[in-house]
Design the sequence.
């Protein structure tokens, strides 16, 4: 059932209809007059919006389409025109925007700013930043760009473009947040983090990284802030890892003055928005503690806790290495097993703590006695073992070297010990065996050394034994010779022979005293056999003194007869003898005791002797020269052969070594050297004696080169003093 409209309703509808008709009339008038060229009808449902579009319609369409809000204000801030975008920004229907004042959407805080712009045009040069308050109360940050309307109409006065900054602000906020995040990571991270640019300069450093560096490394090259060494000793280079994928864990050691840290380095790329490598992100993790623990574990596994020396395990490892080295190269090694005599008795009487002290001190002394590269290990109990590397390839020589080391170990372990207030003297038994290239395997070597040790024990305490029978024999001979040398010195088994020295005309000028040992069993022994041993044992000191006394006595004897009074006597002085602090006094005393003229005595010294201690040597020579003694430099040309000697030391004579004279006629370079020595000597004002002249041809050639002093079999072999007499008569 439908109800019929009441009269009041009809009247209202009629009025509305009439208003609309009037409106339509007005529009048609406008179209007719050409003021507008289009009518746009928009709106939905019952509500309808008519917009008259003028000749500027395309521009309006443009303005509607653009992303910014646009509006035209009349005087008094009334919105005369606004585009749809502005309405959206203000969250207000467009028809309610038009005709309203724009100021009502400006936030309270920006009102003054807006009015300055509106009334005085202030701030119009560049976009003004204000906040709009939309209809729902939300804030819209935006810029207002304004320009006065150039049209000469009465009403519109200002044109405004409103750019919504919400998105931009959000972007900035996001950036800010990212920056904050980065900062808090750098501040709070437990590890050290560094951001470095492509040139490895540090641009950001976490707090822990700064602590690790000792200062803020920002701005420094990474390598300077963190000098890191890789396990192979090379320096870590960040540049080598630029662009690495970020998976490495490189171990390195940071060596700052005063602090050493083990670090794990992680390097990852720092990428730009397009994926390009801008630099590196470096993380440094301090693993010093873990490393220390690992070292400790290693220490426990490979070292003896009591002495800190390698244990049996590490020893076997090193022995394997030495065996491999000896198999590869010409050098030999040696295994040296040491057992302390009477250790059990010490343990039983003074207790294990004292025993432990002894073991520690023995370990210490053994370590000090060997060279770097050798191994001292403790096998357990009171048994120590040494691996000696780099011995001579000549077996006899290697044996002598080992013997020397063994003797050194022995004397070191013989020194008294202080064991917590107890004075103690201990001796070792030592078993030795050589490691050749064809050496036995590890077990066999140890057995050999063990056997030698067993024999050393059996032979009595403080004894050294070789496994190899021939070496044992050599060692025994060596030891025997030493005691015989002592005995020989005591019982007068030494004698001097004299070898004539002549001038250019063959006239006797003097002699060199040469030592001989008349051995009761072995007959006459030449000095080369026993001088080195005498040097080694120190017996050279009393022996040298005897030579000096005997030579002085001979000089005194010669002085008493006119035909021999002018002869000189040359005496060889060994390095060890010359090095004695009171050497000059000993010489002076010998001369005085025998009543010999110092001017007739000539000391023959060698270059090596001078090299020992240049200052001390020249001081001693100066003192002796002042007494009237002469100095000859023996074996000249074979040693270091430096001109420095000739200038530094107050020498009188050079002796051209036998080796040059021997091949003088066959080897042109030897002749050249002899010639050069003669020229040199002339320059320095030194006399020259050529040694070992055996033939007339040698003599003639030397004389031709300007040599005026000779010694050698051509003029006489070393012989008893009486043999010189015949020569004088000749
Ligand atoms: P040196 O001082 O170079 O002595 C010269 C050596 O050459 C002597 O050997 C001598 O016998 C030898 N000789 C001399 N003329 C000839 C020759 O024409 N042909 C050959 N082939 N040889 C010749 P010696 O006596 O065996 O002495 C060897 C070395 O022992 C000496 O070399 C010297 O360094 C050392 N020596 C000798 N006596 C003493 C001494 O009293 N004290 C010290 N410390 N060393 C000594
Ligand atoms: Ca000599
Ligand atoms: Ca010589």
Sequence:
């Amino acid at each position: 059932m439908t109800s019929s409209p009441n009269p009041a309703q009809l009247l209202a509808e009629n009025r509305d209809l009439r208003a609309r008709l009037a409106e339509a009339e007005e529009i048609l008038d406008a179209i007719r007059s050409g003021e507008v060229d289009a009518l746009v009808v928009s709106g939905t449902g019952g509500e309808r919006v008519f917009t008259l579009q003028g000749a500027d319609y395309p521009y309006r369409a443009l303005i509607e389409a653009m992303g910014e809000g646009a509006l035209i204000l009349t005087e008094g801030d009334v919105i005369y025109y606004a585009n749809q975008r502005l309405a959206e920004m203000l969250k207000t229907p467009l028809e309610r925007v038009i005709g309203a004042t724009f100021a009502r959407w400006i936030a309270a805080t920006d009102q003054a700013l807006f009015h300055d712009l509106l009334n005085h045009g202030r701030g119009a040069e560049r976009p003004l930043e204000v906040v709009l308050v939309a209809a729902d109360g939300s804030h819209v940050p935006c810029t207002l760009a304004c320009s006065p309307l150039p049209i000469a109409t009465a009403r519109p006065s200002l044109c405004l473009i409103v750019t919504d900054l919400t998105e931009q602000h959000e972007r900035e906020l996001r950036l800010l947040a990212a920056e904050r995040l980065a900062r808090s990571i750098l501040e709070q991270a437990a590890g050290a983090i560094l951001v470095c640019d492509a040139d490895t300069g540090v641009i950001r450093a976490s707090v822990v990284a700064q602590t690790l560096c000792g200062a803020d490394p920002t701005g420094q090259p990474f390598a300077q802030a963190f000098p890191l060494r890789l396990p192979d000793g090379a320096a870590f280079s960040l540049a080598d890892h630029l662009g690495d994928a970020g998976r490495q864990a490189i171990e390195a050691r940071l060596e700052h003055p005063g602090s050493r840290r083990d670090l794990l380095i992680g390097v990852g790329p720092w990428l730009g928005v397009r994926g390009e490598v801008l630099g590196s992100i470096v993380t440094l993790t301090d693993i010093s503690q873990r490393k220390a623990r690992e070292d400790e574990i290693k220490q426990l596994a490979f070292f003896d806790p009591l002495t800190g020396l390698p244990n049996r395990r590490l020893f076997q490892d090193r022995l394997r290495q030495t065996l491999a080295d000896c198999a590869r190269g010409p050098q030999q090694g040696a295994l040296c097993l040491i057992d302390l005599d009477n250790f059990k008795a010490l343990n039983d009487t003074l207790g294990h703590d004292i025993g432990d002290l002894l073991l520690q001190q023995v370990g210490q002394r053994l370590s000090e006695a060997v060279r770097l590269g050798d191994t001292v290990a403790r096998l357990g109990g009171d048994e120590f073992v040494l691996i000696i590397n780099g011995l001579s390839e000549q077996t006899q020589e290697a044996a002598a070297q080992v013997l020397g080391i063994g003797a050194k170990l022995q004397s070191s372990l013989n020194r008294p010990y202080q064991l917590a207030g107890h004075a103690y003297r201990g001796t070792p038994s030592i078993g030795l065996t050589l490691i050749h290239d064809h050496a036995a395997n590890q077990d066999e070597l140890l057995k050999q050394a063990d056997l030698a040790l067993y024999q050393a024990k059996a032979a009595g305490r403080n004894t050294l034994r070789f496994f190899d029978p021939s070496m044992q024999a050599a060692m025994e001979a060596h030891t025997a010779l030493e005691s015989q040398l002592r005995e020989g010195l005591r019982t007068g088994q030494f004698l001097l022979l004299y070898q004539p020295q002549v001038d250019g005309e063959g006239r006797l000028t003097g002699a060199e005293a040469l030592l001989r040992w008349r051995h009761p069993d072995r007959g006459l022994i030449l000095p080369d056999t026993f001088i080195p041993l005498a040097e080694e044992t120190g017996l050279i000191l009393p022996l040298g003194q005897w030579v000096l006394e005997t030579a002085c006595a001979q000089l005194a004897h010669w002085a008493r007869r006119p035909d021999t009074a002018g002869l000189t006597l040359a005496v060889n002085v060994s390095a060890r003898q010359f090095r004695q602090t009171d050497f000059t006094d000993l010489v002076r005393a010998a001369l005085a005791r025998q009543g010999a003229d110092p001017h007739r005595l000539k000391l023959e010294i060698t270059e090596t002797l001078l090299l020992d201690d240049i200052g001390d040597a020249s001081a001693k020579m100066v003192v002796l020269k002042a007494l009237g003694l002469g100095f000859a430099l023996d074996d000249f040309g074979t040693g270091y052969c430096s001109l420095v000697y000739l200038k530094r030391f107050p020498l009188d004579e050079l002796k051209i070594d036998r080796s040059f004279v021997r091949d003088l006629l066959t080897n042109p370079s030897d002749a050249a050297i002899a010639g050069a020595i003669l020229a040199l000597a002339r320059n320095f004002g030194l006399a020259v004696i050529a040694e070992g002249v055996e033939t007339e041809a040698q003599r003639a050639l030397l004389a031709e080169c300007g040599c005026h002093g000779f010694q050698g079999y051509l003029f006489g072999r070393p012989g008893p003093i009486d043999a010189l007499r015949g020569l004088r008569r000749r």
Remarks:
- The longest helix spans residues 7-32.
- The first strand starts at residue 38 and ends at 42.
- Residues 498 and 686 are 23 Å apart (CA to CA).
